[in-house]
Q: What sequence folds into this?
């Protein structure tokens, strides 16, 4: 009696889609962006209506710094679901990365409308206004965020950085001091204070905060630069012995 050959079952499109999507996500988490592209495309062929696949492949292209393709896939996702926070947020990020802050503002606003509590979207909106040379708007957003979350160090950091860009080093120094009140170990605030006091020609305070930064990050490239700056500051000080001789 001839035995009937067993039929090989082919996986369904949905099973294939899930398998490819999981593979792509694994590569994405490992930051192997190029390796993620093909499984994302295969996943998309099996299921053209899964927006997470479009978002995923856009993140892979963003990781490869191909922002035009990232935006193309996000726009495809937007056609499938026109009110999605992650799509809007990612579009905003990609428009920022390809130097189109005027478009980034539009999408960050849409994202915030869907999720008003997301402070990172608000910060990105403020950064977009900075790039549009609208510092007053950025500062207003930073202040609004800090009203809602008074210990949000990332926001203070951006606010201080904006003041430094504007040349308002006294204001920036005040913000960096607020950061240190919240977290005395936040070494970047010591660096910021050192730079502010240096710009304000208050080198004694600049050296103090530079040394605090150096103590926290002794092996960094920034520390090597700061050591050189401290030596330069000390070399410009009047010779103490000569001063004593004049006084006597």
A:
């Amino acid at each position: 009696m001839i035995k009937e050959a067993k039929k090989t079952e082919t996986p369904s499109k949905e099973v294939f889609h899930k398998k490819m999507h999981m593979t792509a996500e694994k590569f994405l988490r490992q930051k192997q962006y190029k390796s993620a592209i093909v499984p994302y495309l295969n996943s998309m062929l099996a299921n053209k209506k899964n927006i997470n696949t479009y978002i995923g492949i856009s993140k892979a292209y963003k990781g490869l710094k191909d922002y035009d393709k990232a935006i193309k896939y996000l726009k495809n996702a937007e056609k499938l679901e026109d009110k999605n926070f992650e799509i809007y947020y990612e579009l905003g990020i990609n428009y920022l990365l390809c130097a189109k802050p005027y478009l980034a503002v539009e999408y960050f606003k849409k994202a915030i409308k869907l999720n008003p509590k997301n402070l990172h979207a608000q910060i990105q909106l403020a950064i977009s206004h900075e790039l549009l040379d609208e510092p007053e708007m950025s500062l207003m957003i930073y202040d609004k965020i800090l009203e809602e979350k008074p210990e949000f160090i990332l926001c203070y950091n951006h606010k201080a950085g904006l003041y430094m860009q504007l040349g308002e080093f006294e204001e920036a120094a005040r913000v960096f001091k607020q950061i240190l009140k919240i977290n005395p170990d936040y070494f970047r605030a010591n660096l910021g204070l050192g730079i502010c006091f240096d710009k304000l020609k208050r080198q004694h305070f600049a050296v103090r905060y530079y040394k605090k930064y150096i103590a926290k990050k002794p092996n960094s490239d920034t520390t090597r630069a700061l050591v050189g700056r401290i030596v330069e500051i000390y070399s410009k000080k009047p010779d103490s012995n000569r001063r004593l001789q004049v006084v006597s």
